[in-house]
Amino acid sequence: MNEFVHLHVHSEYSLLDGAARLQDLVAKAASFGMKALALTDHGVMYGAVPFYKYCKANGIKPIIGCEVYFTAGSRKERGTRKEQPIHHLILLAKNETGYRNLMKLSSIGHLEGFHYKPRIDWEALERHSEGLVCLSACLGGEVPHHLLHGRYNEARKAAQRYQAVFGEDFYIELQDHGIPEQKKVLPELIKLAQELNVQLVATNDVHYLNQEDAEVQDVLICIGTGKSIQDEERLQIPTDQLYLKSGAEMAALFPYVAEAVANTKAIADKCNLELQFGRHILPAYQPIPDGMTSESYLASLCGQGLEERYGHLDMWQQEHTREQLHQRLHYELSVIGSMGFSDYFLIVWDFIAYAHRQGIATGPGRGSSAGSLVAYVLKITDVDPIKYNLLFERFLNPERVTMPDIDIDFSDERRDEVIAYVADKYGAEHVAQIITFGTMAARAAVRDVGRALNIPFGEVDKVAKLIPGSLGMTIERAIRESPELKGLYESQQRIQGLLDMARKVEGMPRHASTHAAGVVISRDPLTDTVPLQAGGEGTPLTQYSMEHLEAIGLLKMDFLGLRTLSIIERCMNWIREQEGEVPDFRRVSDDDPLTYEMLGRGETTGVFQLESAGMRRVLKDLKPSTFEDIISVLALYRPGPMEFIPKFIAGKHGQTAVEYPHSDLVPILKDTYGIIVYQEQIMQIASKMAGFSLGEADLLRRAVSKKKREVLDEERGHFVSGSLAQGYQAEDANAVYDMIVRFADYGFPRAHAAAYGVLAFQTAYLKAHYPVYFMASMLTAVMGSHRKVAEYIIECRRMGITVLPPDVNESGILFTPRLAAATDGEAVRQTALAGAPLEATQADKPLEAAETAAAYDVEESGAAETSAPAAEEGLQGVIRFGLAAIKNVGTQAMESILRERRERPFDSLLDFCRRVDLRTCNKRVIESLIQGGAFDSLPGHRAQLLAMLDETVEAALKWRKEREDLQIQLFDFVETPNWNIEYPDIPPFSAGQQLDLERELLGLYLSGHPLDDYDELLDGEGIDRLMDLAESPDGSRIIVAGMVVSVKAITTKQGKAMAFMELEDQVERCEVVLFPEVWRRSGELVAKGALLALRATVQQQDEGFKLLADELAPLSAASLAQLRRSRGAAPAARAGPTRSRSLQPGAGLTPHWRRRPARLQRSAARPPGLRPDWPRSPMSGRPQAPAMRRRRRSASSSRFRRRRRTPACWRS
């Protein structure tokens, strides 16, 4: 019976309940010959748009609906489920009005009625009932629920009210899944329908595709509820009949009410919704000045912006150049206006201007929008498209009308402020963030299913780890590609069941979350176009994902939070406060020698887009000297074009002759040495040779990148014929076209590369000129990751920047740049190494009393306004560890410390406990502070302070309680009682104990390293340091020593055991591969924290180097000597300075790892306007005007000469 239509259907978008994929549902309905199909997911409309498209593609009428949650009370009340029961109700959209009302009801449930479930009530239902068909739903519906509990009159009243609202569009729903409760209410439902003259309709509560898929739903429910299938108390569905049945099966279920089956078609005939795709629902900018349109207002703003951007440049004085700029601007404005996008640009201009007014950092641009002069003069982007030869048509093609796409980077710490501004300006009902769905990828599906099936964790974990983590990996593919996984699948029945079930749920949505950047702004209330639900930070969330929003015509904008902007912003704030002025990047030369010297040495840790090990190697070979080089390397360092990097480098250095496919293309390809690097170059070539407009050239670029044979042949004909018309030979035209096809996949948007090149240059400039500020800002940015903090502290060591331990009197919340006296610092280092207590004035230059409090309260800008003394001779730049980076120290505890410190410094542990709020800064917090070294500047060493902590806290609490009991106010209290709390006579922690505590609390060794005692030994002949190996030739044989950070044992495809371990010394970390034979011989030596010596072979890779171990031994003089003997003669000196330690004494070279880092050897060149006789800032090394020195806080710099024997506790 093909007339039957399923009207009660759940898909995978009934999250962790529905087990049927949309495509499969539609395909099976089509296979039954069904003419229509409904979708009614629980409380949401997530799948409506893709469902509609699948149905249309399969010749089936889509019926969009929802199984809503309904309360007979008020949706705004928050009673218990017993006080205010939640019922189910099926609503189906008959037409566009019904669809709009359905979206509004779904939105109301989520935004106004969410309590356990997104509930609607009678008021909402009556207001938005037009165009909807209503079914009384399953046993969870209000009418059958009353009947099930013997409340016939209440059921009748409820049915009458639905009937009053929906009239003939209300149906009483019949279901029969073999459940006793359904059998009980079926006669009652039929009787009620007859009494009220309400039509009946038969449905199946579809949750999965086939009967055998009932177990899949059971597993999904277990995943969602955190239960296992062995748990008898779990939520269980007492039937396996919730599958997509044929019309014949449904007719057989209801032979006694054939009209109920027939009515499914009658309802389907009522439903004729047609969704519109391909339209643009663009918002309107407000307010527009009187007498102006959005087009004229945009033109006026651009005219002002053009003069602001170019008026101060020499080129503006040339009439010809001014005319060219005006022509380009007029052209872009005419294209924007003809496409109807003027309001769009005004909206973006407005919120960018707001961000600038509020001091919120914005990026220079992202994607192809940097090619627009309009965007540049409006200050939407900060990359000059004229200077960098960027093409507008790559962004907005007049010959291919598509939505503009301007993605904006904001400081990740303040992005939400801009979204809040947009919501406030255009109204909350017009602005929403975009939903995204977390799906069960291969590994996640295995782990989730394993828990649901109650399979032991170790067994599940082993299987999950055998699935490669590569993008797009599936379980099916993993079984094919992994012999070990395939073996387990074929030999173990339980593993086979696990993987088979995981395959059935793989890729299904698991949860909904907020898209990282997407925001939609609508002209009309959003609920006219898309259903909404609650999101974070008070901004609603669309129920449709990004691709479906674009399909229905809503304008999507990306508000991205970029950490790099926060790093730059914080760094600039510190520079402004300490140095008196900041670099103006609009006027800083983009060929700054110091910056390019640093880039050429590959010292780019922390530099935006340039800090990977592979990129550092490229930069060392490339030796970039211009901004064009930075743009090119960003475009080339990607899979595919990476193979052309050697050719690019050889071309730059004149090592090979640069070849061009035709001499006319030299101007287009000369900056990239004959290689097509950018998509814009393809467009320029097509314009030059084939006479294409840039719009046509962009269409060609898009067409050839798809690599479809018929398209390639067609476009070849167009290109060659155009080239012939321009006077080129067919042979040359075909050769150039072949080159275009080859590079079409690799081409990168030059505009995007230029925009991100700006950020790369800015961060490199700050690192080269203001190293301490920059590294302090980098450390602050990664405080949440102990691994990244350790990595950047290692970089500080390499740069010669001291990172001081945390201190309750000196540390801010963030890592802070500071000034410290070099002589005092040396004393502190020696004392700390001995584990003795430190005096409060030893660590840093003392502050004046007036500035002690605020100088380190850096919660917002990272520094407070103070009048710290000017830099003096003998001070050096350092970085002070931030309190927020200490484990267990929360925000409220830090606020309490800073608040009390504003009054005066702490002078002892007792003084600290008396003054801070011990409810937030509790004993656990204080223990962490002591163990992390934050009390080292106060009397008592760490072991003593921990031993007396309980007594001290109790005394402080007792004193505070006595004060409260006696109602003694703080300002009346004259003298502290003379408590006699003795410092216990116990030895300090050993160096090893102290380091272990630091590692636990700070995530790294700070006051030293377990290898420090072996420094003299490791300076010996023939022993390498890890930091030197990055430039060692591939295959070099070396001997190194280090500490094991982690170890991971695996089994090879041949069933042999081997391992990977991570090894570190004081400066560097690397991976070491222990092949089966080495692991068999020496595996018992490898444990976390073990100090090892090893002989190995260097393997250089794009992502850095790794070591292939030959032999391991516990670290000792004897083991190193044995490794040297077994290696034989010392290896030949390797190319470059890294082998200077192997030279004989007296060779006149300072060992590389002892040399003052080259980056600290500052250029003699000085910025214009700075006098050479001015004193230099110890923070940045730049000449400093006297006026700048009057308002200074203590801060930090790397400009000090590194000592040959810097004590280890301070090198960190």
UniProtKB/TrEMBL annotation:
> Which residue intervals define the domain Polymerase/histidinol phosphatase N-terminal in the entry?
5-72
The EC number of this protein is: 2.7.7.7
Query: What's the protein here called?
Result: DNA polymerase III subunit alpha
Domain of life per record: Bacteria
User: What Gene3D superfamilies does the record point to?
Assistant: 1.10.150.870, Bacterial DNA polymerase III alpha subunit, thumb domain (1.10.10.1600), Metal-dependent hydrolases (3.20.20.140)
* Nucleotidyltransferase listed as a keyword: yes
GO molecular function: any one? 3'-5' exonuclease activity
SMART domains for this protein: POLIIIAc
Region (Disordered) residue spans: 1128-1212
Set out the biological process GO terms recorded for this chain's protein.
DNA replication
UniProt lists compositionally biased (Low complexity) regions at 1128-1142
